[in-house]
Here is the input.
Amino acid sequence: MQDKIDKLRSDVVSPQSLFIGGEWRVPQSGATMDVISPIDGVKLTTIGDAGAIDVDLAVKAARAAFEKGTWSKAAPAERKKILFRIAELIERDALELAVLGVRDNGTEISMALKAEPGSAAATFRYYAEAVDKVYGEIAPTSESVLGLIHREPVGVVAAIVPWNFPMMIGAWKIAPALAAGNSVVLKPAEGASLSLLKLAALCAQAGLPEGVLNVVTGRGTVAGEAIGLHGDIDVLVFTGSGGVGRRLLEYSARSNLKRVYLELGGKSPNIVFADAPDLEQAAKVSAFGIFRNSGQVCVAGSRLLVERSIHEAFAERISAIAEKIKVGDPLLLSTESGAISSEIQLEKDLGFAAQALSEGARLRTGGGRILQDTGGFYMQPTVFDVTPEMTLAKEEVFGPILSIIPFDDDAEAISIANATPYGLASAVWTGNLSRAHCMVRGVKAGVVHVNTYGGADNTVPLGGIRQSGNGHDKSLHAMDKYHNLKTAWIQL
Ligand code: NAD
Here is the structure.
């Protein structure tokens, strides 16, 4: 497969336009943005820098398509056919999509293949299968009345997504929104638009009617803000940082009170007890739970809490694994951790490492920029011993930095685990069943892994609690965001 990847890696990527109403259109202002590849810091192509006027055109196209009903009123079995076809086309072009995405955002290709086209195809298939299996309800009323609860599409859904896994996260939003019969306006992140533009082309090829999926690329502060403030978007779904999430809630309050669902960041605790069934396996999986995609993973296990009796040995083990991780060219199948998505993000990560040192954290390994001669953005997998008060124990880095904290007993582990405003992911490693269940109950998070980290499939929801968000992607629960409930109260 490496030879195929090598052939694709230098394909010329033509300048990209916006996809509105089934047509490729340049922004009304003609403005473009450069796409810089994090692999080598070289310009890859340009994307459209959409303004409020383009967002308005996209929303109008989405609304017109919704009202026309070709998709929104299509028989569920018809929608299902097209969603299945989209999944097939994603799989047909999987390698091309993965390489394009990696050139854009730097994720190692071994991970991107599974997590991007692989996962996106599985998600389209999952919601294709759901289309004709989600029912309305009949209420348990008195004999003289019939109470029906209809599920209706909400209308126009806007999705704003981040750069770390654009196709996977994009599909988590687009597929259930389309399955429910809505029209969609998608805004990819500045640093990862290319694979989603290609996905729009595949959706059109699969027969999705024009205007049902629109893609506007551009800056968050311009196109994103225009989406947030638009008066004719019914639901806004978002994955990204807490700061932007707060803004979106404000935009909604200032405009049409659109429903806003947020999937935000985390500082996820990964708790290792001395009685874990296999400490070697725990160390390996925990290392990749933070260092895959250079730590640019919302559910990354960035805080490693280790029972004091094994703390030193486990910290040494995981540092040794970190030192051996092959960081480098993300388009080599042998690379285990690719590039940091942008120079700005790399600076941010290095800033966190510098601050940790200045606060007295002990650096076990890493901490620096590497492979600078490539022109790309790479950082060593980094491990620090920290105390719970330090910045690194509290703030999300979104980079390859692991913080290790010892604990003495279960109560202290839970107390440290819950001592952040976040509540996204977590894990507990133990061979004691009762302890595992107590930790599942005690840790405040949307997901608690037991004796593993990551990997949950489409059958279960992914969502945060507390300041990690208020919406769920994946599973049938995600469909609720894209439906309105309507009651029919019928006197018999
Ligand atoms: P970000 O919040 O900077 O950007 C996300 C998106 O919001 C981008 O498309 C951006 O253009 C847009 N945006 C920026 N400013 C905006 C504004 N004022 N109005 C409207 N839109 C705006 O986040 P990021 O740097 O792309 O991603 C990293 C963050 O995402 C991390 O905090 C990470 O934890 C989080 N994340 C969460 C999940 C999850 O499922 N919970 C998954 C992946 C990433």
